[in-house]
UniProtKB/TrEMBL annotation:
Swiss-Prot/TrEMBL catalytic activity: 2'-deoxyribonucleotide-(2'-deoxyribose 5'-phosphate)-2'-deoxyribonucleotide-DNA = a 3'-end 2'-deoxyribonucleotide-(2,3-dehydro-2,3-deoxyribose 5'-phosphate)-DNA + a 5'-end 5'-phospho-2'-deoxyribonucleoside-DNA + H(+); Hydrolysis of DNA containing ring-opened 7-methylguanine residues, releasing 2,6-diamino-4-hydroxy-5-(N-methyl)formamidopyrimidine
Gene: mutM
Catalytic residues (positions): 2 (schiff-base intermediate with dna), 3 (proton donor), 57 (proton donor), 261 (proton donor)
NCBIfam families per the UniProt record, alphabetical: fpg, PRK01103.1
Swiss-Prot/TrEMBL cofactor(s): Zn(2+)
InterPro entries named in the record: DNA_glyclase_Znf_dom_DNA_BS, FPG_cat, FPG_Glyclase, FPG_N, H2TH_FPG, Ribosomal_uS13-like_H2TH, Znf_DNA_glyclase/AP_lyase, Znf_FPG/IleRS
Protein name according to UniProt: Formamidopyrimidine-DNA glycosylase
All residue ranges annotated as the Formamidopyrimidine-DNA glycosylase catalytic domain in the record: 2-112
FPG-type domain sequence ranges: 237-271
Short name of any one Pfam family annotated for the protein: H2TH
Native source species: Pseudidiomarina halophila
């Protein structure tokens, strides 16, 4: 499933092709996504696109007629292609621009979404109103995280992956950040000191920023008919390396399931 850096790179890739353009028409080939594509999206015909924003793993297309909400789900991808280019299987939705280009949404597994909101979704849509702060903003601080954790016996890894606490810290990045911070993923969130959160929060930010920077090399893919950014090639310390040696101390890395997700850590480096 695409995580925050992949979605942010999607935003960076499509925004220059959309912002300032006018929507000529909306094409819905199949409404059957995670939620049915509403008829209301067709109201966007004739609208001008002002901005493409990311909130958590949602992309929000701002127009003067309302807001288009996009989520890639597990297999969705967005491409900017000529509007008359060949339609392939699972091309469910087109946002056709007056310049002859279109934003095309392809989703084989149909867990993505295409929704509409008259008001800004961050204040009006039930999928977004209760989300926690963005991890790369000043609202996400060690003191905020420490306060939210008070009294919680929940494992710190699942705590920082909770979108009601902070958005966008997916499984890969939670594994990596906790390793770099030296925090055991099963430690109760309420038993992590403020000092340790003061180490963890900047590491989360640095880890996500590095992933976004690496993903920037895939921006050209958004104008290719078969292009998609996918996961970026990254230097990973623990994720996907269960049973291998820790790169720091050479101890064998342990892999467990935590919150139904693969969790890899070093018994020696993480306490």
């Amino acid at each position: 499933m695409p995580e925050l850096p992949e979605v942010e790179v999607s935003r960076l890739g499509i925004a220059p092709h959309l912002e300032g353009e006018q929507i000529a028409t909306v094409v819905v080939r199949d409404r059957r996504l995670r939620w049915p594509i509403p008829d209301a999206v067709e109201q966007l015909a004739g609208a001008r696109i002002n901005e493409v924003e990311r909130r958590a793993k949602y992309l929000i297309v701002h127009t003067d007629k309302g807001y288009l909400i996009l989520h890639l789900g597990m297999s969705g991808k967005l491409r900017v292609v000529p509007a008359d280019s060949l339609v392939v299987k699972h091309d469910h939705f087109d946002l056709v621009l007056s310049n002859g280009q279109c934003l095309r949404f392809n989703d084989p597994r149909r867990f993505g979404c295409v929704l509409f909101s008259r008001e800004h979704p961050g204040i009006a849509h039930p999928l977004l109103v209760e989300l926690g702060p963005e991890p790369l903003t000043e609202a996400f601080t060690a003191s905020y995280l420490h306060t939210k954790a008070q009294g919680k016996q929940q494992a710190v890894k699942t705590f920082i992956m909770d979108n009601h606490v902070v958005v966008g810290v997916g499984n890969i990045y939670a594994n990596e950040a906790l390793f770099k911070a030296g925090i055991h993923p099963k430690r109760a969130a309420g038993r992590v000191s403020l000092a340790r959160y003061q180490r963890l929060v900047p590491i989360i930010k640095e880890t996500l920023i590095a992933a976004i920077a690496q993903g920037g090399t895939t921006l050209q893919d958004f104008t290719q008919a078969d292009g998609q950014p996918g996961y970026f090639k990254q230097h990973l310390n623990v994720y996907g390396r269960g049973g291998k040696q820790c790169m720091v101390c050479k101890t064998e890395l342990t892999e467990i399931r935590l919150g139904q997700r693969s969790t890899v850590y070093c018994k020696n480096c993480q306490r």
